[in-house]
């Protein structure tokens, strides 16, 4: 006999059920000597400018776990809609999921209205969600896009406040990037000038902030066209190993010969399979 | 991260958000980053360090090497709190001079190591926040490496990494120099050129993943001819 699971009607206001559970877990964990796992943050330098024909967004590509680099080439400029993109700083999972949720809702909204989505709509959706979670979603965003009313740029903070400005920076490298903007920003720049300015601002973050690094990604949004340039600038390449410089095989070779890991026993079970499709996915062996 | 002070023991939310009297402390230490590495060979020793001095998320200097030349046959690498590194090296220099004047000979690597251990332990209850590694030649002319902890415990090693990226470098050295976790590999003794290559490659890898390591690499190669210095650029981000 099937049991009926009756769904409770959603209560109004904030739901703090998990907060109770989390604080109990945290105190119990500290009694045993363990610490609650910390979320991975992106360190980060992100920024955006408004120029004559649209928006340029920029971001670095380093993700850190504490003070160790977890990802040397992660993508921080997220898609919201064909004419709106969003850079994210703070907790990596939060920026990723928040932008995906809003992107999905915005697509449904656009189908419902029959119009191209506006940047102000995305901004409103993001800030209402972040405020609802009272800052517990650690996402600091730079939202930019071009809609029927022209180019718009917003910065959105984890607690849900937003600022509509001609140039914004966020993340641990935001001070370094803002220093560049305050020096060289002008209204009504050309595209190349704006790209160079954003590139230089992110580079300032990459070289002067330990939480940011690797390459510079750019996203240029104009009316009817988006240029997602990844990477725009490979500001840092991995140092060349000295064995590779000369053609002669020198001692700088770190490949292991077969048998370096001892083979204790070997069992071969041939499987009768038919090859349908073959794909190659390369590892990052740099 | 949840503000657990808003919730009481039972999990019920507290009525008000008064945090209670909070104690503000002044910390006498700071962490300035940096990685040091020393390798001992048959007739040479190598001490290498990166040259980045950082604090928090900022960089103080891109050219602050952590290798200090003590005598013609000994180099000290120290990383950790830069203030204590400077004071410690001043004290060691003074003690070396005093020894020279009273005993009419230069201190040997082993003697310096033993002396450093006592200097560090004299501050057992307010330690020098420094990770030291001494590299040099012993009385027989063979390479020697002595590694220390912040309060003076030391031992003689063949190779040792210390500082912020030490956990990344040490296993790699264990494998490449100590031939650990490998079978059927011929234990070739380490030549000076191979050791220098290894040190350069290993720091390139450390700079990739540790944010505190980068900018440049300073290598001091100690042989009976003297101390040769090399500077290699590393990632600056």
Can you give the helix content of chain A as a percent range? 25-40%
N- to C-terminal distance of chain B: 28 Å
Shape of chain A: globular
Helix and strand string of chain B, N-terminal first? Answer: EEEEEEHHEEEEHHEE
CATH architecture call of the domain at 45-234 in chain A: 4-Layer Sandwich
Mean pLDDT across all amino acids of chain B:
91
Structural class of chain A: alpha+beta
Structural class of chain B: alpha+beta
The top level CATH class name of the domain at 45-234 in chain A? Alpha Beta
Uncertain stretches of 5 or more adjacent residues of chain A: 244-251
Strands of the biggest beta sheet of chain B: in what spatial order?
Answer: 10-1-2-11-12
What this model shows, in words?
- The complex is a heterodimer of chains A (286) and B (237).
- Chain A has 286 residues and is of the alpha+beta class.
- Chain A has a domain of 190 residues: Glutamine Phosphoribosylpyrophosphate, subunit 1, domain 1.
- Chain A is 30% helix and 24% strand.
- Chain A has a five-stranded antiparallel sheet with strand order 10-1-2-11-12, with helices on one face.
- In chain A, helix 2 packs across helix 3 and helix 4 runs antiparallel to helix 5.
- About 3% of the residues of chain A have low confidence.
- Chain B is α+β, with helices and mostly antiparallel strands.
- Chain B has four helices and twelve strands.
- A five-stranded antiparallel sheet of chain B has the order 10-1-2-11-12. A five-stranded antiparallel sheet of chain B has the order 5-6-7-8-9, with helices on one face.
- In chain B, helix 3 packs antiparallel against helix 4.
- Chain B is globular, with a radius of gyration of 21 Å.
- The two termini of chain B are 28 Å apart.
- The interface between A and B is large, with 49 and 38 residues.
């Amino acid at each position: 006999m099937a049991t009926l699971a009756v769904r409770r009607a959603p209560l109004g206001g904030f739901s703090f059920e998990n907060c109770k559970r989390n604080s109990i877990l945290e105190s119990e964990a500290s009694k045993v000597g363990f610490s609650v796992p910390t979320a991975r943050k992106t360190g980060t330098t992100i920024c955006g400018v408004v120029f004559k024909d649209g928006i340029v967004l920029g971001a670095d590509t380093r993700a850190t776990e504490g003070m160790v680099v977890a990802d040397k080439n992660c993508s921080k400029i997220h898609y919201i809609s064909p004419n709106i993109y969003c850079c994210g700083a703070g907790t990596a999972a939060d920026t990723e999921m928040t932008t995906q949720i809003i992107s999905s809702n915005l697509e449904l909204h656009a189908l419902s209205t029959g119009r191209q989505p506006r940047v102000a709509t995305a901004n409103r959706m993001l800030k209402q969600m972040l405020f609802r979670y009272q800052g517990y979603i650690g996402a600091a965003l730079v939202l930019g896009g071009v809609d029927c009313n022209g180019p718009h740029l917003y910065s959105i903070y984890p607690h849900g406040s937003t600022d509509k400005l001609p140039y914004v920076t966020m993340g641990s490298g935001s001070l370094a990037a803002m220093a560049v903007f305050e020096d060289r920003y002008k209204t009504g720049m050309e595209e190349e000038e704006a790209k160079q300015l954003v590139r230089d601002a992110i580079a300032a973050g990459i070289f002067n902030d330990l939480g940011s690094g690797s390459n510079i990604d750019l996203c240029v949004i104009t009316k009817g066209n988006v240029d997602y340039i990844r990477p725009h600038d490979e500001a840092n390449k991995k140092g060349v190993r000295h064995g590779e410089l000369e053609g002669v095989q020198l001692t700088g070779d770190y490949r292991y010969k077969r048998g370096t890991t001892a083979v204790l026993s070997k069992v071969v079970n041939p499987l009768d399979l038919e090859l349908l499709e073959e794909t190659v996915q390369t590892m990052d062996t740099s | 991260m949840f503000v657990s002070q808003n919730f009481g023991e039972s999990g019920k939310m507290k009525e008000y958000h008064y945090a209670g009297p909070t104690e503000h402390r002044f910390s006498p230490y700071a962490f300035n980053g940096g990685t040091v590495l020393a390798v001992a060979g048959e007739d040479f020793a190598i001490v290498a360090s990166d040259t980045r001095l950082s604090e928090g998320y900022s960089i103080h200097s891109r050219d602050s090497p952590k290798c200090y030349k003590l005598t013609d046959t000994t180099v000290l690498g120290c990383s950790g709190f830069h203030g204590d590194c400077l004071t410690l090296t001043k004290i060691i220099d003074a003690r070396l001079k005093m020894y020279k004047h009273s005993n009419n000979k230069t201190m040997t690597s082993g003697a310096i190591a033993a002396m450093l251990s006592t200097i560090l332990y004299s501050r057992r209850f307010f330690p020098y926040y420094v990770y030291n590694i001494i590299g040099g030649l012993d009385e027989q002319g063979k390479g020697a490496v002595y590694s220390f902890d912040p309060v003076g415990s030391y031992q003689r090693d063949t190779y040792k990494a210390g500082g912020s990226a030490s956990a990344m470098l040490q296993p790699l050295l264990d494998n490449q120099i100590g031939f650990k976790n490998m079978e059927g590999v011929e234990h070739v003794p380490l030549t000076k050129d191979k050791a220098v290559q290894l040190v350069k490659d290993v720091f390139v890898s450390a700079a990739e993943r540790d944010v505190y390591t980068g900018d440049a690499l300073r290598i001091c190669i100690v042989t009976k001819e003297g101390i040769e210095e090399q500077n290699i650029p590393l990632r600056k981000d």
